[in-house]
Amino acid sequence: MIRFDNIPPEVMQAMCTPMHQILPSSSAYPSHPSSSCHSHHLGPLFLGSLTAAQDPPLLRSQGISHIVSVLDAPWAPTPSHLEREGFSVYKIEVGDEATVDLRPYLEAVCANIEGVRRMGRGVLVHCQQVRIFADFWERHKRVEGA
Q1: What CA–CA distance (Å, rounded) separates 38 from 29?
Q2: What is the pTM of this model?
Q3: What tens-digit pLDDT sequence spans the chain (146 residues)?
Q4: Which one of 27, 40, 44, 82 has the lowest number of neighbouring Cβ atoms within 10 Å?
């Protein structure tokens, strides 16, 4: 039996919530004066569970059109049903375990996340170890100066 006796309410809520918005939609302005004078819209970024990644109505309700998934397990669902529903799936087929070296994938996946957000579209990152998201977040903070 799972017990929640010693878990703070906010932690229990986070554990039971399939998806968390990490970066909201926002307007970004050109960083260089010779750039277009129009601002562009950045899409939101979410971190979520496998349940959230397999729920097209939930994804659409949050403006998510792209899913980044780090999961290679015999029981893992294939991205084909999401693609048939109109979602783009960036799948990294490696074991989502602390011992797996994700460095060879990080540059490309971070560029993918940022590119999708710059198109004004939402991204859901699903990875059990959260390392893909953590690397993207560190890069985002450096770029934004946060």
Answers
A1: 7
A2: 0.73
A3: 455 677 666 656 655 668 888 888 987 555 444 444 445 789 999 988 888 888 999 999 999 999 988 777 666 677 888 899 999 999 887 765 667 777 788 888 888 999 999 999 999 988 765 666 666 667 666 666 55
A4: 27
Q: Say if residue 9 is exposed, middle or buried (CB neighbours under 10 Å; 0-12, 13-18, 19+).
A: exposed
Q: What is the Cα–Cα distance from 123 to 47, expressed in whole angstroms?
A: 8
**Side-by-side strand order, sheet with 19-23:** 19-23, 45-48, 122-127, 64-70, 88-92
Residue 37 has what DSSP assignment? Answer: S
Question: Quick check: helix, strand or coil at residue 107?
Answer: helix
Q: Do β-strands 122-127 and 45-48 pair in parallel, antiparallel, or remain unpaired? A: parallel
Beta bridge partners of 64: 122
